[in-house]
Amino acid sequence: MNDTLMPAGIEAPPPGGARICYRQARARDAADQAEVFHHAVMQGAMSHYSVAQREAWASVLPRDASAWAARHALFTTLVADCDGRCVGFLELDIPRGRIETLYVWPSLSRRGIGSTLLIHAERLLMEHGHDLAHIEASLVLVERLVRRGWRVVGEEWVERGGEQLCRSRLEKRLTAVET
After folding, report:
1. What is the dihedral of CA 167, 169, 173, 178, to 10 degrees?
2. What does pTM read for this prediction?
3. From CA 51, how far away is CA 96, in angstroms rounded?
4. Whole-number Å distance between alpha carbons of 155 and 59
5. CA distances (Å), 78 to each of 3, 46, 131, in order?
6. Cβ contacts of 93-100, under 8 Å, gap ≥ 24
């Protein structure tokens, strides 16, 4: 694992090790969220979007902790914490039954972090009386979401910094799963 791709002081979790815990975001997570977002867009989305599209997308939110901390007041934010650092997060709009964002540090993708964040979000939505969850997902996530039981209900183009980006609208029927 290339440590230069990880936030300062973070190493990849050992195989089979459970160094990642999931919890609600704290104000101190905001700086890490800014970095996770930036790197997930710039590196993690490179096979689906052009450099210009990714730069426009990444510029939507400043690479600044205060912007992400302010979002904690708008959304229920769940984080994947590895040794005290946020390495992935999901923002949830509970009243609307909607997952607003889901980002994971690129070198940690495909290790179940995003899936686990989704499981926690789906459980929270069910606890608040929702039986259907919604998300507008980038092309990076669509195939993985469909494999997890989400259904594509449409495609849309959004403008970010003068660039057009394609994304999909998906929904998932929520059912209780015994754990």
Report:
1. 20
2. 0.85
3. 32
4. 23
5. 24, 25, 20
6. 94/124, 94/125, 94/128, 94/130, 96/134, 97/125, 97/130, 97/132, 97/133, 97/134, 98/133, 98/134, 98/135, 99/133, 99/134, 99/135, 100/75
- What tokens appear for 3 in the block? 């440590």
**Strand, coil or helix: what is 85?**
strand
CB 23 within 8 A of CB 116: no
**Alpha-carbon dihedral 3, 7, 159, 74, rounded to 10 degrees:** 150
Summarised one tens digit per residue, pLDDT across range 16-74 is 555 899 999 999 999 999 999 999 999 999 999 999 999 999 998 888 899 999 999 99
| Contacts of the segment 68-77: beta carbons below 8 A, 24+ positions apart | 68/29, 68/30, 68/31, 68/33, 68/34, 68/37, 69/27, 69/30, 72/25, 72/27, 72/30, 75/100, 75/101, 76/24, 76/124, 77/24, 77/25, 77/29, 77/33
Residue 111 DSSP class = S
Single-letter code of the amino acid located at 5: L
CB 56 within 8 A of CB 162: yes
Q: Which two tokens stand for residue 75?
A: 């959304």
Residue 160 neighbours by CB distance under 10 Å:
17
